[in-house]
Write a structure and sequence with these properties.
Distance between the termini: 77 Å
Number of strands: 9
Radius of gyration: 28 Å
Number of helices: 8
Strand content: 5-15%
Order of helices and strands: HHHHHHEEEEHEEEEEH
Number of domains: 2
Structural class: alpha+beta
Largest sheet: 3 strands, mixed
Shape: elongated
Strand order of the largest sheet: 1-2-5
Helix content: 40-55%
């Protein structure tokens, strides 16, 4: 069982990292600890949980788990709704494609494009949503031209996009985003501004986001070339000295 000081360290670290301002209940922990005569040491004041003692870290982890419980419950609820929507869309699309037999590939392609992602963004400038879910797909309505007139075969894509956004799920275009092959986070593959540049690398049929950084397979070869160059330089200098 954690001793008194380990518990105080854990609460101080928790309040430091998770308080929501001076009016929050987490911030009030500082006042209670002060009244108990607690003075944080270097570990507790570092804002780095890994610097806590083993007992203090165990208490800290329990505090964080309890603090994040409402968010986890909300995420689970949103996830269940989003997945239920996709199942319902599947049945709607089957019926719609049967009544528009000439456009079945468009309906099925639209359904295949819609995916839910649970690992967030690795793209600079993007913040992970509170629900922890991002949806990608083609959100354009399915349309066709007949005799110069455009008509809508189905507005399911835009309707499901609106439903996702009401749930707090951001929607992105599937032809502009892709998942990192290593961590599963989303990266943008098409520019959205003049200053945009790719935050990923490609190799061997995989995409690595900038957070994962694919190892450079040529590093050893480069090192060898550098060593050979150094050897040649040393030999040349030696010849010059002999002369």
């Amino acid at each position: 069982m954690a001793d008194r000081f380990a518990i105080f360290d854990a609460y101080y670290m928790f309040a430091s990292l998770y308080h929501g301002g001076q009016g929050s209940k987490e911030y009030a922990i500082f006042g209670r600890l002060d009244r108990l005569g607690y003075k944080p040491g270097l570990g507790a004041s570092s804002q780095r949980p890994e610097r806590l003692s083993e007992d203090a870290r165990e208490v800290f982890d329990r505090l964080v788990y309890a603090h994040e419980a409402p968010a986890r419950a909300k995420t689970a609820k949103v996830k269940a709704k989003a997945e239920r929507y996709l199942r319902l869309i599947g049945s709607f699309i089957e019926r719609a494609s049967e009544s528009n037999s000439g456009y079945q590939w468009q309906f099925r392609s639209m359904l295949q494009d819609m995916q839910l992602h649970y690992n967030g963004y690795a793209e600079p400038g993007y913040t992970d949503p509170e629900c922890g879910i991002v949806a990608t797909g083609n959100w354009n309505d399915i349309t066709n031209y007949v005799d110069g007139t455009r008509f809508t075969l189905s507005d399911i894509p835009s309707r499901i996009g609106n439903l996702f956004e009401k749930l707090g799920i951001p929607i992105e275009w599937s032809d502009e985003w892709v998942s990192c092959s290593h961590c599963g986070k989303l990266v943008r593959t098409e520019p959205d501004s003049m200053s945009w540049h790719p935050s990923y690398t490609m190799g061997e049929g995989e995409i690595w986001c900038h957070e994962c950084d694919e190892p450079d397979d040529d590093s050893d070869e480069s090192d060898n070339e550098s060593e050979e160059s150094d050897d040649e330089s040393d030999e040349t200098e030696g010849q010059e000295l002999d002369a």
